[in-house]
Amino acid sequence: MTTEESIVQFRETYTAIRNEIGRVMVGQDAIVEGTLNAIFAGGHVLLEGVPGLGKTLLVRTLGDVLDLSFSRIQFTPDLMPADILGTNLVMELPSGHREFQFQKGPVFANLVLADEVNRATPKTQSAMLEAMQEKQVTAGGEVRPLPKPFFVLATQNPIDQEGTYPLPEAQLDRFFFKLVVGYPSAAELTEVINRTTEGVQEAPSRVLDGPGLMELQKLVRQVPIASHVKDYAVRLVLATHPKTATASPIANQYLRFGSSPRGAQVLILAAKVRALTQGRFNVSFDDIAVAVAPALRHRLIVNFEAEAEGVTTDHVVAQILKDVPRDAGVLV
């Protein structure tokens, strides 16, 4: 298959998946596209929004459209790591003997919904770290690989903080994107009511399977990127590091810590996916700019001054986009 044919196939597959999700989801275009972008890049997604906006519905629909095994973990304060990873149980054999057998937990699925992930204790949250980063779990003294492909789509409620445990920065950094789910418009809300209170809702069709998805993920990494465009992504990340020569003024004023190197990796991969969805086999400045907010908003840590003045990481990211010129010569 030629490069042109591969690009056409990628775009057609992406469009088909997007259309099938649209048969179930109303609106939330940026959220759906951001989630698909992360999945095609092989990353995990954190969905933040108040209850009832369709976060869980989106994840379930993705599992149907992509023909992937799906599991849902409802995070609660009493959830234990073994409830996620699995545990050894004593099983009686037909011969009458007994032996330990490992019973896999719900994390052993292609698509894992970690619902209200900030309701579990840090001990349980940390059980997801190895799974998300290494695509494997250590249980019963053995390292067990997770099925491929593997994605974690986690949700959290930003307004209900009683009885919750905010995710530590180390775990937040493992999410490819953090997407903020907003309220629907009047027209979208009307369509939601029509679909859910009248008649029977149609089920989405399956468009792609696991092996096919992994082939498209390989194509994403083959997309070339010019040195000056890559340099733009690097300068954006460096501008988030306060008290350095490359820091943006707003970073010096409002940030305690800037983005990790993962932020730059995410910008590049997300831009490559967007280029393919646009029918291009090269990355533009716009591809980088579109990915900045979801890629960096959860990788920046604001200081006390920002908290006192109500300045969010989204405000900081938006200003950095204005401060950093697109083409300023290559750094390296």
Can you put this structure into words, describing what you see?
The protein has 332 residues and is α/β, with parallel strands linked by helices. It has two domains: 3-214, P-loop containing nucleotide triphosphate hydrolases (Rossmann fold, 3-Layer(aba) Sandwich); 223-323, Magnesium chelatase subunit I, C-Terminal domain (Helicase, Ruva Protein, domain 3). 47% of the residues lie in helices and 16% in strands. The protein has 14 helices and eleven strands. Strands 2-5-8-1-9 form a five-stranded parallel beta sheet. A two-stranded antiparallel ribbon has the order 3-4. Strands 6-7 form a two-stranded antiparallel sheet. Helix 12 runs antiparallel to helix 14 (313-323). 38% of the residues are buried.
Features:
Rossmann fold, 5-stranded parallel β-sheet, single chain, Helicase, Ruva Protein, domain 3, 332 residues, alpha/beta, 14 helices
Short overview:
The protein is α/β, with parallel strands linked by helices and 332 residues long. It has helices spanning 3-22, 29-41, 55-65, 81-85, 122-134, 169-172, 186-197, 210-222, 227-238, 249-254, 261-277, 285-296, 304-309, 313-323; strands at 44-48, 70-74, 86-92, 98-104, 111-115, 136-139, 142-145, 151-156, 175-180, 255-257, 301-302.
